[in-house]
Amino acid sequence: MHPAIPLLLELQKTDNEIASLRANLDTAPKRIREADAKLSGARAAVVSAKDALAQIVAVRKKTEFEVTEWRERAKKFRAQTAAVKTNEAYKALLHEIANAEMEIAKAEDTQLEQMMAAEEAEKNVKTTEAALRESEQTIAAERKEIENRAREVNRKLLADISVRDRIAAQVPEKILDVYSRAAKRHHGVALAAAVNEQCRGCGMRLLPHVYQVVYKPENLELQTCETCGCILYPSEPATPPSSGANPSAASA
Ligand SMILES: [Zn+2]
What we know:
Blueprint: H1 5-81, H2 87-170, H3 173-185, E1 191-195, E2 198-199, H4 208-215, E3 231-234, H5 247-251
Parallel strand pairs: 1-3
Antiparallel strand pairs: 1-2
Helix pairs in contact: 1-2
Bound molecules: zinc ion.
């Protein structure tokens, strides 16, 4: 095994951790946006409940006005009855009065319905307002938790980065370069175990001499997979190259 392998494995482990911490941190703003979106739903519910109430208040006013108008008309017709001269005119007035009273009764029925609708709408405003207050509290708590967790993740990330720097400082620059290039190509994965003469990174068969060098105790030459470019390391438990007794090697 190449002497840099244990350090590179450490480096890989730390880099994996850093990547997963970064991915976790990246989700925080989205989670905060999602929480805020829930709040905007509750806000919209209050607005539409208030709109509905305002509409009912407006139609109630209109009906109220109609009732007053019909009452005044009926009053006027009644006053006229004392002054009529003919029987027909009297009958016509009675007919007008009956009609006005019918309209008043109709409008009063409408008023009753509208009153109940207004009560319902008022209740709805109160309910949506209470739901909004509750949402605000829940979401404020959620936000705080997301922010606290993000701070915690950030602390870990900074610690890992300094660990990474310490490890990287011990790796010869040339090797670090090979590592970085391989990692760039494979979403951060720079190392691959060599098992049964195969690269575990890409699954391709390794040249027998490459495989042997990977397992050589005094190996000073870093081996990379010809196909994927990953740095090869001996797997644990070690499967040292057999002298032809390896079944997979024999079948190849
Ligand atoms: Zn490979």
